[in-house]
Amino acid sequence: MWSECCWRKHAPLTCGDLSQETVLRSQTPDDKRISVEFRLKQCPVDQEVCVCWVAFNGDLHHFYRLGNRECDLPDCHAEQAASNHAFVLFFKQGHERVADDIAAERLICSYRPNASNEQDLHRIEVEWEWGWPRVHVDTVAPAECEYRVLISPSERITLPSDCNWRIRYRFRCPPLPESFDKCTQTFYVWGDLDFDNYGPFGRNQTHDYQFNQIVPQVMIGRCLAESDSGFRPGWKLFDEWVIQAQYFWSHKDGTPYAHCGEIISVQPGEELCTTIDYLASVGAISVNMSAPNGRSSSIYLDRPFPDNASLYRSWSHFFHVAETASGTRGSFARPALNVEYKGQVNLTTLASVCPFEVLEASVPGCAGAWRSQLYSPTVGACSQLGEFHVSKACTLPA
């Protein structure tokens, strides 16, 4: 569709801004959803490269590691984003937290897409010539970067704040995926619970966090798998299935946060069990994901959004505020099971981990059937993708 090379230190391009001398900041995003892809060619073997999303205030987030595949590092990274969000690619030194921490001699480039067709893929390719990075940017037609198998209740769910409740899922650990590249692909398989109805894009907003998701999961590939004392997430590479209890939340400006439990290795075919328990007497939520022989990962959540402790005193406080906003007895919640497949996706690899064998999905107040569907960001909800049908995607008890 369009292509340009950067020979100058700072170049306003047709569909974005590219700089090799300053770190660009995100600006107010518009409604256009796009994808970005960073690719390295002939990266120096002894260098580790980092790609970050740059917040409006210059804070760095995500910290995806790239490099030379001889060093077991991926040489590309792709993700969905919004127009006017900024990214930076730099040689990592170890202590960078904000844009100003990146020394000029370690900056490779910074890119901010700002005008294109919705769902375009912005590809930023860096090739080293005589030790100097040459940056090439182009936009191409939309490419699939995510597929999902979704299983959810057919009815809307509310959960009470004045009594204990438990959500419980049981399913089999999937087979190892075929034709799978842990550096460029990710599977997250989970039974979760979210309260996004009360965020900035929900019907009854009470706060400014876009995501509010309790999500214990089994995963493989390039996965969010750790968090520091400030709840900043980090990513790791896995070539076998692992389970981990997680709580993930994200501000409307795109800043992500996570609270992660212990990582536990599991095997295909093992029965996995997730429990999400609300403890009304203390207003907290206990989260656990377990495998046979007593192996488990757990986290304890005394309040939502712990990065902002002044917002809610407890989960019961959050539920009371939510009930008032929606005018309901109980808070609107969205439980679901999901096979989430991200990166350089293909239907053959997705099919290799199916059927998703669900043994139990127990949610208070949910007596109706659960529906299953396939989902693609470029298509939306759909009954089938290519030759891959919903009937092959999951099995549920009769």
Topology readout:
Blueprint: E1 2-6, E2 10-13, E3 16-19, E4 33-41, E5 49-54, E6 60-66, E7 76-82, E8 86-91, E9 107-113, E10 121-129, E11 132-140, E12 146-153, E13 157-159, E14 165-172, E15 185-194, E16 209-214, E17 217-227, E18 233-244, E19 246-251, E20 256-260, E21 264-265, E22 271-279, E23 284-291, E24 295-301, H1 315-326, E25 331-343, H2 347-352, E26 356-362, E27 370-376, E28 380-382, E29 384-385, E30 388-389, E31 394-395
Parallel strand pairs: 4-10, 26-31
Antiparallel strand pairs: 1-11, 2-3, 3-9, 4-7, 5-6, 5-8, 8-9, 10-11, 12-25, 12-27, 13-25, 14-22, 14-26, 15-16, 15-17, 15-25, 16-19, 17-18, 18-21, 19-20, 22-23, 23-24, 27-28, 29-30
Concise synopsis of the structure shown:
By secondary structure, the protein is mainly beta. It has helices spanning about 315-325, 345-350; strands spanning about 1-5, 10-15, 15-20, 35-40, 50-55, 60-65, 75-80, 85-90, 105-115, 120-130, 130-140, 145-155, 155-160, 165-170, 185-195, 210-215, 215-225, 235-245, 245-250, 255-260, 265, 270-280, 285-290, 295-300, 330-345, 355-360, 370-375, 380, 385, 390, 395.
Low-confidence stretches: 1-8
Arithmetic mean pLDDT: 87
Radius of gyration: 21 Å
Largest sheet: 12 strands, antiparallel
- Our count of helices gives 2
Helix fraction, binned, reads under 10%
Strand portion: over 45%
**Total strand count, please?**
31
**Number of individual domains:** 2
Shape annotation: globular
N-C termini distance: 49 Å
